[in-house]
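Students often ask why inverse folding is considered easier than folding. One informal answer: many sequences map to the same fold, so there is more than one right answer. In these notes we will look at a single instance of the problem. The structure comes first.
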C-alpha cells in the first residue's frame, strides 16, 4: 500500500499510464494526431457543437492560449475546423469535422476501456466515493 503522502505522485502516475494506454489504443485503431490533451476539446464539441475559443477554454478549465495551441494541432490533422460566427464577425467558432465525427464510436470505445481500467475491482459505491474524494481534493485548490 502506498503511503498517503504519495497521493500526488499516484495521481500523476495514473495520468501518465492512462495517457499511454490511450495513445496505444488510438494507434491500434489507426487514429493518428489525437493526443490525450485533445480529448476534453473533442468531447465538448461533441456535446455543444461549435464553440468559440473562449467558450472552450472555460468549459475545459484551460487558458485561451493553451486551447489555441491544442485546437491548432487538431485543425492541422483535420479533426476540427474554424467557422465564422454568423452573429458576430469578430468571433471564430471551432467545429468538429466529418473525419472526427466518423471516429466517434472508436473514441467512445477507448474512453470506456480507460474508465473500466480505472475502476477495475471497485464497486459502484467505491467508484462514486473515489470520484467524490478526488473532486473534493481538486476543489481544495480553487480560490487560492
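Output (designed amino acids):
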Amino acid at each position: 500500500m502506498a503511503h498517503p503522502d504519495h497521493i500526488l505522485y499516484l495521481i500523476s502516475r495514473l495520468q501518465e499510464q492512462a495517457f499511454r494506454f490511450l495513445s496505444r489504443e488510438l494507434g491500434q485503431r489507426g487514429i493518428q494526431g489525437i493526443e490525450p490533451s485533445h480529448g476534453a476539446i473533442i468531447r465538448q464539441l461533441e456535446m455543444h457543437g461549435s464553440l468559440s475559443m473562449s467558450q472552450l477554454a472555460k468549459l475545459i478549465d484551460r487558458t485561451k492560449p493553451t486551447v489555441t495551441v491544442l485546437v491548432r494541432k487538431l485543425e492541422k490533422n483535420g479533426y476540427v475546423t474554424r467557422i465564422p460566427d454568423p452573429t458576430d464577425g469578430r468571433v471564430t467558432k471551432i467545429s468538429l469535422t466529418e473525419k472526427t465525427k466518423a471516429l466517434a464510436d472508436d473514441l467512445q470505445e477507448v474512453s470506456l476501456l480507460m474508465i473500466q481500467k480505472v475502476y477495475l475491482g471497485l464497486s459502484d459505491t467505491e467508484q462514486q466515493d473515489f470520484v467524490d474524494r478526488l473532486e473534493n481534493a481538486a476543489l481544495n485548490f480553487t480560490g487560492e
